[in-house]
Every structure is written in structure tokens, then in C-alpha cells.
Amino acid sequence: MQRTVNTSQLFQRARCESVKQHELLLLSALRDRNFDNFARIAMQDSNQLHAVCLDTWPPCIFLTDVSLKIMNWVHAMNRCCGRTVVAYTFDAGPNAFLFAEESNVSFLLHLLALCFGTKSCETTSEVPSGDSSINHVHVTDPVDKMVKNLLFRGIKYPVYSMPIDMELLKALPRHEGGILYVISTEVGDGPRVLASNLP
């Protein structure tokens, strides 16, 4: 990122100021519990970060084809649902951080498995076998009738059992095996000072 600071005109002219504005707007959206505003600002801020990375000389490119498909998936999902149900942000890397309200998580996990999961007969060496903290979402894809599998760890959510609108499914970008696993978390109670056991 030092190269970005030194070479990106976008960073020097705009990014420093927009980060300050976005921080205030994000805090306001959180305070007001306004998910729509939070989602829009988080995604715009993430996009600006990666625009600055591209403006760096030579460019810093962190997003992958799968990253871009996830971004398009989020926008297609929100457009098809007629409201904001999910948002993304990316740090300086290819991994998406998705935000959703709790009431939508089971639905989103189901669709992530359909669009980015692996065929259930396939396994990945990235995930240790026998790890009890790993859960699976198994979904039969109504388009190709294959069972798709998505590994996740963290908070468990109920299995989504409602039918999926075929028009929605057709509108969503796919990349089979694009997501190795999901880590499911929730907003906590904020930072805390812990007693140190260090001498």
C-alpha cells in the first residue's frame, strides 16, 4: 500500500477525503440501524479502495474473477429481490466479506451453495477432515439437478427450505467451486480490554 500512497493520484486527491466521509456515514447508518445505507456505503468504499489499487503504478490487483462474480452476484441478488439483502466489502485481498441481516442468512447461504459451491462428490484439501466446527450446506440445484455443497464454520443457521424463484436463479452469476468455505459471524459487543497474562 505504500506504493499506492506514493503513486496513485486517486489516493492523493480523493481517497483520503472520501474515507473520512464514509466513516461518518457508516457510523450513522449503524447508529440508525439502516442496513440499506450501510450496505451502499460499505460497497462504494470497497470499490474505491480497489480503484485506487488499480491507479497505483504498477497496479496492485487483488480482486480475482471469483471476487468480481461475487460482486456481480450481490448486485444481481439485490436487484432481483427489489431491496438490499446483502452487501460486500473486500480488504486488500480477493476474499469477500458479506453483510446481511440475520433474517436473510439462511436464504443467502442456500444461494451461495447453488452458485459457488462444489458438486457434493468433490472435496477440498483446504479443509481438514474430521473438523467438528465445519458444517455443510447441501442443496440440489434445480437447474442441473446436481447436489451442491458449501462448507461453513461459525454460527449455524436453519436450513432454507422454501422454493427458489427460477428467474432469480437464472439471473445470478455462478462459479462452481469458487468459494472454498464460509466463516459465519455476527456483530459483537465491541472491543474490550482483557487482562494480560504477560509479565
Quick summary:
This protein has six helices and six strands; from the N terminus they run H-H-H-H-E-E-H-E-E-E-H-E. With 199 residues, it is of the alpha+beta class. Strands 3, 4, 5 and 6 form a four-stranded mixed beta sheet that branches. A two-stranded antiparallel ribbon has the order 1-2.
Task: Supply database-style keywords.
alpha+beta; 199 residues; two-stranded antiparallel ribbon; GHMP_kinase_C_sf; Alpha-Beta Plaits; 6 helices
Indicate the CATH topology of the largest domain. Answer: Alpha-Beta Plaits
Q: What is the helix tally? A: 6
How far is the first residue's CA from the last residue's CA?
Answer: 35 Å
Beta percentage is 5-15%
Count up the domains.
Answer: 2
Low-confidence stretches: 122-128
The CATH class of the largest domain is identified as Alpha Beta
Instruction: Report mean pLDDT, rounded to a whole number.
Output: 88
Shape: globular
Largest sheet, if any?
Answer: 4 strands, mixed
Residues in helix, %:
40-55%
Radius of gyration: 19 Å
Query: Could you tell me the number of beta strands?
Result: 6
Assign the CATH architecture of the largest domain. 2-Layer Sandwich
